[in-house]
Specification:
By secondary structure, this protein is mainly α. It is built from seven helices and no strands.
Length: 232
């Protein structure tokens, strides 16, 4: 009794399998028939199989031309991208040059302003040198005679001159050191340096004036040691 349901199930599965196979075969046959009918209809609509083959060849020809035009379009696109990249490089170069010009203009303006300030300082110093009463206003060298004050003021102008040329790149450290070795042999300059050393020692070490101060100090030490240059 238990074998009957199993047998009926197997029969149903077999029946469904056969029915499925039959349906699949029927659908395949119908597809083949429909494809042949459609192909025959297309050939008939285009004037027969020979005409359809010719038209297919013409279509392949235009397909080849389309591929050529597609390749040309791709080349034009690549060329356009290359030109755009070149234009971008030129624009970056122009921007870089403009930035350099702006930096140069800023440096020129700064130098012009420093030159004006230097000219004003020279003018004020000249007035103080000509009139001892005006030199007393600054009170940089109290208790000194008029002659010594004038020498100190002039020595300060000389130091400022070397500072300006050094800061603007007109003289290297080696050249400034040569000038300093000659200058520190002057007794009036030595007196000026002793009077102003305390103020110059407080200058920032990384500033142009601070570096110049160290160069003059080196020249003074060399002069005190007998003129032998200090090894670097």
């Amino acid at each position: 009794m238990e074998h009957q349901p199993i047998g009926r199930s197997l029969l149903r599965i077999s029946a469904w399998s056969v029915a499925t196979a039959v349906c699949a075969a029927a659908i395949g046959a119908a597809s083949i028939v429909m494809s042949g009918w459609l192909l025959a209809g297309v050939e008939e609509a285009n004037g027969g199989r020979h005409a359809a083959a010719e038209r297919s060849a013409i279509g392949d020809y235009f397909g080849g031309i389309s591929a050529v035009f597609s390749g040309m379009a791709l080349l034009l696109l690549v060329a356009t991208l290359m030109f755009q990249q070149r234009e971008l490089r030129l624009q970056r170069h122009e921007l870089s040059m403009q930035r350099q010009e702006l930096v140069s203009s800023r440096d020129e303006l700064r130098r012009s302003a420093e030159s004006d300030m230097r000219a004003l300082h020279v003018q004020l110093t000249q007035m103080a040198m000509d009139d001892p009463a005006l030199a007393d206003v600054w009170n940089d060298y109290p208790g000194e005679s008029t002659e010594v004050v004038r020498q100190h003021l002039f020595a300060n102008l000389v130091f400022g001159h070397y500072l300006l040329t050094y800061r603007w790149g007109g003289s290297t450290e080696a050249e400034v050191l040569v000038y300093a070795r000659s200058l520190v042999r002057s007794a009036p300059f030595q007196r000026y340096w002793e009077a102003s050393r305390a103020a110059k020692e407080e200058l920032p070490a990384d500033s142009a004036e601070g570096r110049l101060f160290r160069l003059f100090e080196q020249a003074i030490r060399e002069a005190q040691d007998g003129g032998a240059p200090t090894p670097h």
